[in-house]
Amino acid sequence: MNKEVLSLAIALAIPITTHADIKLYGQIGAEAASVEYAGGDEDLVRGKMGSSLGFTETDDDMDRQILTEDRYGNILNDGPNLIGLDFELDKKLPGGLIPHARYRTTFHTTNNSGLGPGLEAWVGLKNDTFQIKYGKLRGAYRNAKGLIDPWIYTSMQARGSGGGMSGGRYNEVHWNWNATGDRRSVVKDPITGKVGINPGYGINTSGLVHSSDIPGALEMGVKFGGVNARVQIMGDDNADKRGGNAELKYTNDKLIVWLLGAYLDQGDNQISPGGAAWNNDKFYNWKIGASYKVIPGLKLALQYEDGELGAFDNNPDGGQYIIGSFDYRIQKITLAGWVAGYLSDIEENLRLTDINGEVLDEDALSWSLGAKYHITEYAHIFAGYRQTDSDNDYRDENVFSAGMLYKF
């Protein structure tokens, strides 16, 4: 970013801490889950593969397990927990502009290991029709996940659990290319014959999918009535990484319609493993969706996404996601669920060959269903079930989950 933008950020940060209204807020939650990966397949184990020594790390087999802390990232007790500070100058500048800023960070409830990765941290200017921000931003592409998924921030969410929307790698299978480099197959442990997988695996997508925020980004947006439009631009020549998000959204009392696009130029920093056959340094994602309040207590939503970045099967050709959801509240009870399909564009030579030599497709169907009991306006307990069924059986999974979430 240029020096003018950085100077603006510094200038705004100095007075806003002493002459601002400050709002403290956040949420804290915890859950436990009963998880079964890949149908309890006896040929699979959770762990990392070494070279000729086989597994360098092993875990229980794929039978059902009770998990409250999952180092692979699928049990999300560090997911919903955050503390945020919003700052806003208590008077307007010429032109009606108001300096404002935000800082957010995460923490864990499983072992209270302290503050986790920082989330948003930015400064900006706004008025009734215009805004500008600079810093680490919540990506518009990521922020829209809450418009479609009623189980966001739990282990029943569509993000990162397969089939629902783009994110990190999901049930990543250890694999190698064959001698001619035209086929990839799973790697078996030389002693046990088992295949190692990581159920959840984070990748740096620079905030341009549903699993991270955008570092060092500039946002400009306008608002006219129910129409919001904004652009987020990330540029770092030293990191050889450029990209951004664009959003167009319409909102009224019953209807929300959104159209978003994301672009990332990775340069020489490849995020897909495997050599030249996987190289793709430019990625494009876009999605369109809508939610509608049928009656005061019932909301239905539908979204289509075409993604090259953060695809379910981790391939640079990406695929298409279609997800529909409902959220129905009756007094203190909310019933909610989603169903999603993933259609892969993976090329024939990139499809995995399993331990029996069979080529695996990657299309998938996922769904989730559960209930919340609202103890107060700010706290609820929840329980539900999520399942993923893929043509690649290594990605299959089912989860029973229960927990509590408190907002303040």
TrEMBL record:
Residues 8-404 form the Porin domain. InterPro entries: Gram-neg_bact_OMP, Gram_neg_porin_domain, Porin_dom_sf. It comes from Candidatus Marithioploca araucensis. It is a multi-pass membrane protein. Coiled coil: none annotated. Homotrimer. It comes from the Bacteria. Keywords: Cell outer membrane, Ion transport, Membrane, Porin, Signal, Transmembrane, Transmembrane beta strand, Transport. Transmembrane segments: none annotated. The keyword Transport applies. This is Porin.
